[in-house]
């Protein structure tokens, strides 16, 4: 009698398992569809970001050239020679470039995931000592 009770529960378990398989594949299909939609949206956003970055860079360059032209005209109004005016503008550009380069170097350090690298070094030391 003990076996008779176990067989229906085993059959019932197998039937439940068989009923779960289509549900699992349905959920898996929905998850894959969701991931595909997210990837398409990310792709569209990436294209928009690239186009907007190009437009931004063009406008920023045009603005900077305009500012430099205004500076040149201002220096000319001070009765400076054109060569000296261009030299001062060159110095301003070099100082600005140096400031941006220093800022980029400080930001670059964070791109290499320093905290994760520190944790990995710590784990390496921990496992080497064991």
Question: Can you walk me through this structure?
Answer:
The chain has 130 residues and is mainly α. It folds into 2 domains: 1-79; 81-130. It is built from 3 helices and no strands. The protein is elongated, with a radius of gyration of 33 Å. The two termini are 56 Å apart.
Roughly how many Å apart are the termini? Answer: 56 Å
Supply Rg.
33 Å
Low-confidence segments, given as residue ranges, are none
Number of strands: 0
Largest sheet: none
> From the structure provided, what is the oligomeric state, counting identical versus distinct chains?
single chain
SS-derived structural category: mainly alpha
Shape: elongated
Number of helices: 3
What percentage of residues falls in helices of 4 or more residues?
A: over 70%
- The mean pLDDT is 85
Task: Count up the domains.
Answer: 2
Secondary-structure element pattern, one letter each: HHH
Strand percent estimate = under 5%
């Amino acid at each position: 009698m003990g076996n008779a009770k176990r067989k229906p529960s085993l059959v019932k378990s197998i039937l439940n398992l068989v009923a779960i398989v289509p549900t699992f594949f349905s959920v898996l299909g929905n998850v894959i569809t969701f991931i595909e939609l997210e990837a398409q949206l990310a792709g569209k956003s990436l294209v928009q970001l690239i186009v907007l970055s190009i437009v931004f860079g063009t406008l920023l360059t045009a603005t900077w050239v305009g500012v430099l032209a205004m500076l040149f005209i201002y220096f000319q109004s001070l009765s400076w020679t054109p060569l000296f005016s261009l030299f001062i503008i060159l110095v301003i550009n070099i100082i600005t470039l140096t400031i941006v380069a220093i800022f980029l170097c400080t930001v670059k350090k964070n791109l290499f995931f320093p905290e994760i690298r520190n944790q990995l070094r710590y784990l390496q030391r921990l496992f080497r000592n064991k």
